[in-house]
């Protein structure tokens, strides 16, 4: 799959490169790791939840450490026993101050993870709101898991024994969590009510089945999130290929742009050369339209990610020509003969500058290809579960 993806990019077929990823079934993504961060407040049962997900007892040497006191002080990974390349990461608790400050929160970096499970007990808190916003800002998705359902049911039964209904209590907890998540801008939030000590009760079986069913999309997202590291070597090879392919055009433009020509002609020729580069990299209008249609975005949205479309840099590049042109004008006006010295000065300034300008044009097209594909892949990555 990666080979097909790279070949399509090297040929400037950006829409095809996307199709190669989105059309693949789950077995093709088995080798793609899915890193799931389990996050929440201290004492919410994150470590016990991980043990329940892995089917481990607390006294198992492979299990996450649990206890009354805060036991998770650094991030630790736990591979899933049956889901290939699925790794659960136990995170230190958020929102618990130690001697006036949260010493763990400063070290907490969620950007390296593909998916999240926000674990909460009791009511929805500001810590959960902060996590939801942080995850959504990264364009990633999550499950919200409400733990300690057994304790909630026991408390409800003691408080209202005559009007107690397990179904009503669980439904109330779930609806309250969903309402809080919707207020944070989450569309169709997925909330699971569980007890870490009863993995076969409440929503725990549903959670396991949902994760299994979502695995294809989540692993595809994980692949897309790793796209820059996959794409960069391919684009470096592509830059070399483009330089070799259009070297004759570069030579002609180098001579033309390095000559003492009128100010607007270099800009026109630069735009022409840039169009050739865009065509080779698949950034021309028809290619962008095909890619936009494939990912359900507009060409305008994809073009907005490009940084080499403007002419400001080209104008800056030709500004030094004004020095040569000024000398030429002075030479012609002062001595009324062909401005030989001015031409030599202009050419001496223009030739090396023009060479680097054309090199920069090719590099800019390669960088824009990466930005456009990242924007297109972002459209897939941000589709909520």
From TrEMBL:
Keywords tagged on the record: GTP-binding, Hydrolase, Membrane, Nucleotide-binding, Transmembrane, Transmembrane helix
Q: State the signal peptide span.
A: none
Give a Gene Ontology cellular component term annotated to this protein: membrane
Q: Give the highest taxon in the source lineage.
A: Eukaryota
TM segments?
251-270, 309-330
Hey, which family's this protein in?
Belongs to the TRAFAC class dynamin-like GTPase superfamily. IRG family.
Q: What is this protein called?
A: Interferon-inducible GTPase 5-like
InterPro entries, per this entry?
G_IRG_dom (IPR030385), Immunity-related_GTPase-like (IPR007743), IRG (IPR051515), P-loop_NTPase (IPR027417)
